[in-house]
């Protein structure tokens, strides 16, 4: 197989977890061209994966939603003459696209060859209990490939690092000056550490460790970051909504440590080789813990209800995240 398509997962952290898939495909098929098909929100992450040669954006909730546009996409895929496709998550609509594209080898999770759409189904038995990255790699292994490296790996362009360095200089951080990043967001509220804890942590890092603190986040995190900065009383550098994903990754790369709850940015930092401190509550480190090259310390308190991953979105007190104290984080820095 010399021309291979991988249909990506949809979320930033999961996209990071999928990066070993591309590396191991390359190792099993030297010289192969590997293309990812992905939704727009993970494109910037996959662009940092050195084992992906090309990215096709599939905007299933936007430009590619109409049936006519899906047919055009299928024709474009047909023109690319892919030898095989690996579907990293079960999706009838995506599998159908690759069928209509005439890709001869279509590998996906499932126990049945339904209508021949996925003609190489592999079992997904037991995958819900293992790390998400291992679950994606199981698609390759159960198809017959050898997996040698399970670590998540991303790489930055030198230009991105230079731009981040200049940005930080304008905010008062000199080149080679150690600083700490607090990533305060998360894709759902129950995974977020309370703002007051982040504010206390920023204060203690600044006063006790003598390090400057940078607060990162997306545009939707600006209000939270502003509140944390005000509560801290130490003037941390606020970059929420200022940098895009690649710019944030470059800030992470230059930092001494990134402290974050279980989130896409946490895994982005880990995959870049940055030291991370991960605060976990309702999710399980064995399933979604950092798997990158960076040294990671996971802090999680057993409060009974979080011994298995908890998705009780109506939780009244979020006690699993509140159980992690500022002192627990300071102790491991």
Short description:
The protein is an alpha/beta fold.
Number of domains: 2
* CATH fold label of the largest domain: Rossmann fold
- Low-pLDDT residue intervals, each spanning 5 or more residues: none
**Strand content of the residues, in percent?**
15-25%
Derived from helix and strand composition plus strand pairing, the structural class reads: alpha/beta
The number of strands is 12
Q: Specify the CATH architecture of the largest domain.
A: 3-Layer(aba) Sandwich
Query: How big is the Rg?
Result: 21 Å
Structural shape? globular
Order the strands across the largest sheet as they lie in space.
3-2-1-4-5-6
Verbal overview:
By secondary structure, the chain is of the alpha/beta class. It folds into 2 domains: 141 residues, Glycogen Phosphorylase B (Rossmann fold, 3-Layer(aba) Sandwich), CATH 3.40.50.2000; 175 residues, Glycogen Phosphorylase B (Rossmann fold), CATH 3.40.50. The protein contains 14 helices and 12 strands. The strands form 2 sheets. Strands 3-2-1-4-5-6 form a 6-stranded parallel sheet, with helices on both faces. Strands 9-8-7-10-11-12 form a 6-stranded parallel sheet, sandwiched between helices.
